[in-house]
Amino acid sequence: MSFDYIKEKKILLVDDEPDILEMLISILKEDGYSKIETAATAAEAFRLCRSHQPQIAVLDVMLPDEDGFSLFGRIREFSDLPVLFLTARGEDDDKFKGLGLGADDYMVKPFLPLELTLRISAILRRCYKNEAAYVTLDACSIDFTRAEIIKGQDIIALTAKEHELLSVLSRNAGRIVTIDMLCEALWGDNPFGYENSLMAHIRRIREKIEANPSRPVSLVTVKGLGYRLITKEVPR
């Protein structure tokens, strides 16, 4: 069976009704999505968008501490992740306001499970259609769909943490990714104390991808800040 890359995307569900969240999780898991996070308030959703960098958010308009439109505006100040508004309010003004702000889609409760999954699938395929599944480095290539490194005649498997780490670096190829961002991507809300573990993962990755791990040219350290992945397509 072919690998469907969109099912690996991280989804953030934001709704203050526990029953709705449970239903959404069930629908998405049934359709094959596994990376799902939830928030019941705008404050929690904002924090997760900053720290966990989801690839799509399903956002309720009516939240207890802030309306979804305002939250969407604050998210847009630092992220362009796709957003699907989901609400019980069906007024045209709300729909036009959400879409006018730049949301990717808008659904009104109640809805059919198939409609939700089809809309999410369509958004993800549209927004991430150009995302590289195969990256070429100086001494090897990375096949993210198989979690493998192709280095000469050798095929080297990636662990789950190595795959996640390289995915974050690849999405930001050529740019500095801070130590804090990488720790949050790998270990979640409480990344403090994981710096040594991160360095160990970086060392093992370099052993797999570099021609000379002691003189890395693809996964380079930016002293005091973090790391940068240099692909063949990104100028050095």
TrEMBL record:
- Which keywords annotate this record? DNA-binding, Phosphoprotein, Transcription, Transcription regulation
Give the annotated DNA-binding region, as residue ranges.
Answer: 132-231
What cellular component terms from Gene Ontology apply here? cytosol; protein-DNA complex
Q: Which GO terms describe its biological process?
A: regulation of DNA-templated transcription
SMART domains this protein is in? REC, Trans_reg_C
Q: Name all OmpR/PhoB-type domain ranges.
A: 132-231
Q: What are the residue boundaries of the Response regulatory domain, all occurrences included?
A: 10-124
As one GO molecular function, the record gives:
transcription cis-regulatory region binding
Query: Domain of life here?
Result: Bacteria
Q: Which residues carry this modification: 4-aspartylphosphate?
A: 60
InterPro entries named in the record? CheY-like_superfamily, OmpR/PhoB-type_DNA-bd, Sig_transdc_resp-reg_receiver, WalR-like, WH-like_DNA-bd_sf
The record's Pfam families line, in alphabetical order, gives: Response_reg (PF00072), Trans_reg_C (PF00486)
Tell me yes or no: is Hydrolase among this UniProt entry's keywords: no
Q: What does this protein do?
A: May play the central regulatory role in sporulation. It may be an element of the effector pathway responsible for the activation of sporulation genes in response to nutritional stress. Spo0A may act in concert with spo0H (a sigma factor) to control the expression of some genes that are critical to the sporulation process.
Identify the PANTHER family for this entry. REGULATOR OF RPOS, TRANSCRIPTIONAL REGULATORY PROTEIN YVRH
Q: What is this protein called?
A: Stage 0 sporulation protein A homolog
The organism named in the record is Murimonas intestini
What are the top taxonomic ranks of the organism?
Bacteria, Bacillati, Bacillota, Clostridia, Lachnospirales
